[in-house]
Amino acid sequence: KDESKTKRLRTKPDVGLEPLKVLLVYTNIDGFHFDNYHFGLATLVSVTKNLGHNTKVEILTKRKHYANYEKTINEFQPDIVGFSSVSSQFLFVKDLAKIAKDLLPNVITIAGGVHPTLSPDSLLEADYLDGFLRGECEIALEDFLDRVSNGLPYKETDNFAYVEGDKVITNELKPLVNDLDTLPLPDKDIYPYFENSIKLTTAAPFFFTRGCPYTCTYCMNQSFADLYNRKRNFPRYRSPESCIQEIEYVVEKHSKDISYLSIGDDIFGPNLKWRKEFCTKYKKRIFEKYNIKMMVLLRVEMAQNDETLKILKDAGAFRIFFGVESGDEAQRREVLDRQMTD
Fold first, then answer.
1. What is the bridge-based pairing of β-strands 260-263 and 236-237?
2. Is 56 helix (H, G, I), strand (E, B) or coil?
3. DSSP H/E element including 273
4. Where does the B12-binding domain lie (predicted)?
5. Which end of the chain is more exposed for a tag (fewer CB within 10 A), N or C?
6. Are 72 and 104 in contact (CB under 8 A)?
7. Pairing relation of β-strands 21-27 and 80-84?
8. Which domains does the chain have, with CATH numbers?
9. How many Cα atoms occupy the beta-carbon half-sphere of 122 within 13 Å?
């Protein structure tokens, strides 16, 4: 499908429709990594909010938080409960979907994220989930909510997967959005950005790109590319100006509480033109004005480029993270597809 044939997201609600109550749930129960802000789910909060729906977010990091979740279900009485799930969290998502159905038998329960996207057959073991929204879902979620609001068959939504008999039906995927500036910024109010990140760590997290040009065998990026019939999950970028404006919005409100920015893109600026423009703007409008530095993620090979390092240092980068993954060169090259020498 040609992306030009897909509609752009609405930014104003349809005043003729009764708003839905939508509860979006993120779990990181017994997780190995501290995960303080989920950019994908926060963007879906913005999509839902922009349509005029009443939206809440529930974050669970411990099993004892089930009680808080049950209380929210009882008090909020959602029409839809949506979960984001990686594989390690799917067991908990199934539990939480059952709780929602036990309390509200007519509630619609759906899940998205990496696990539902790459393992749709998991629906066969999830009796209390009505379906998955797979892949990149901002536009699909808007269509899904419109169908529910209008009493139309929501299972016909693109990107949706559901069980029919003993088989999983997977609908056609909408094309990826090439111009990320057409998407709303991740919500930072309903989704507790300050409380869950800056207040806890003094670092302000940001994420500006989608995808990665590399093909590491252990990463979901290549599987995601295969899903969309792409050779690689080539990065898509928001414009540097959009990124800087988002940073300014946060820094103007919280500069006294921020020690540094943590930019979590899989690879920061593999596109040299984008990197230069971003760093020029960041230096002038953030680093020189607020004296707030940034940390980024790079591939080791990129650190061999003196120009790249100079651009980053001049812009206020003070820390670079690398993933080595293995100290054995043969393991890296032959098993992990990380083509870097010792």
1. unpaired
2. strand
3. helix 272-282
4. 19-155
5. C
6. no
7. parallel
8. 3-170 (3.40.50.280), 202-335 (3.30.750)
9. 24
